[in-house]
Write a structure and sequence with these properties.
Layout (H helix, E strand, L loop, with lengths): L1 E5 L5 E9 L4 H14 L2 E12 L1 H17 L2 E7 L1 H10 L29
Parallel strand pairs: 2-3, 3-4
Antiparallel strand pairs: 1-2
Helix pairs in contact: 1-2
């Protein structure tokens, strides 16, 4: 897992690459909370995340709720296909400001199935 923080950017930008899995959750948790204390607002770039699981998703939800609780702005600036897939799977794209990745399947037109019988 790679974590960088751009302190010159406004909002402060936290870039995460590699894995956002249960194995990295403790380190990421500390980074999220420390960065919120340093910045008035924070943006997270997840475009280099290769793998994310439910622990990574929980951290993103925690960050969103923590930001709201302390009155700080929070947002995702970019997401990788792995993150997009997970947000889509859990239906949380809109929660983080992203539209659903895949459009819901449309119901097929009503088609009557039967055998034509001669009169």
């Amino acid at each position: 897992m790679e974590i960088t923080f751009d302190t010159d950017a406004t909002p402060g930008c936290l870039r995460i690459g590699g894995e956002m899995t249960v194995y990295a959750a403790r380190e990421l948790h500390g980074q999220f909370l420390a960065r919120f204390d340093e910045c008035g607002e924070i943006a997270i770039d997840l475009s280099a995340v290769a793998e994310i699981d439910s622990a990574g998703l929980q951290l993103l939800i925690l960050a969103q709720h923590y930001a709201a609780a302390v009155g700080k702005a929070f947002g995702l600036t970019a997401i990788s296909p792995a993150v997009a897939d997970l947000l889509d799977l859990f239906g949380l794209g809109a929660f983080f400001g992203y539209p659903p990745v895949a459009a819901p399947l449309a119901a097929p037109d009503s088609v009557e199935v039967g055998m034509d019988q001669p009169a």
